[in-house]
Amino acid sequence: MCGHLARRQIRQQQESGDSWALAGLILGYLLILLSLAGLLLFGGFIVTMFGVMAFL
Q1: Do the Cβ atoms of 3 and 25 come closer than 8 Å?
Q2: Do 10 and 18 meet the contact criterion of CB atoms below 8 Å apart?
Q3: pTM, whole model, 2 decimals?
Q4: For position 2, what pLDDT does the model report?
Q5: What angle separates helix 18-54 from helix 2-12, to the nearest 10 degrees?
Q6: How far apart are the C-alpha atoms of 39 and 32, rounded to whole Å?
Q7: Burial category of 21 from C-beta neighbours within 10 Å (exposed 0-12, middle 13-18, buried 19 and up)
Q8: Of the candidates 32, 33, 31, 9, which has an alpha carbon nearest to the alpha carbon of residue 20?
Q9: CA distance 14 to 26
Q10: pLDDT value at position 50?
Q11: Mean pLDDT by 10 residues, the chain (56 residues)
């Protein structure tokens, strides 16, 4: 959210730093995707382990 606001302000006031704001946005969204993927993998691992334990 703040990155989007920063890019708009940079463009409106013809300031430098647009590439840094864009890089921050890209990294932020990438980290969100990696976090969600990690949570899904961890959840799948836990479900699998409890499923295996039910048959022992």
Answers
A1: yes
A2: yes
A3: 0.72
A4: 86
A5: 170
A6: 11
A7: buried
A8: 9
A9: 21
A10: 84
A11: 90 93 95 96 89 73
C-alpha distances out from residue 24 to 7, 28, 29, 51, 56, Å: 10, 6, 9, 40, 48
Q: Supply the pLDDT for residue 56.
A: 65
pLDDT value of residue 32 = 97
DSSP 16: S
If phi over 0 gives left and psi between -120 and 50 gives alpha, with beta otherwise, what is residue 47? alpha
Q: How many Å apart are CA 56 and CA 47, to the nearest integer?
A: 15
| Amino acid code (one letter) for 53 | M
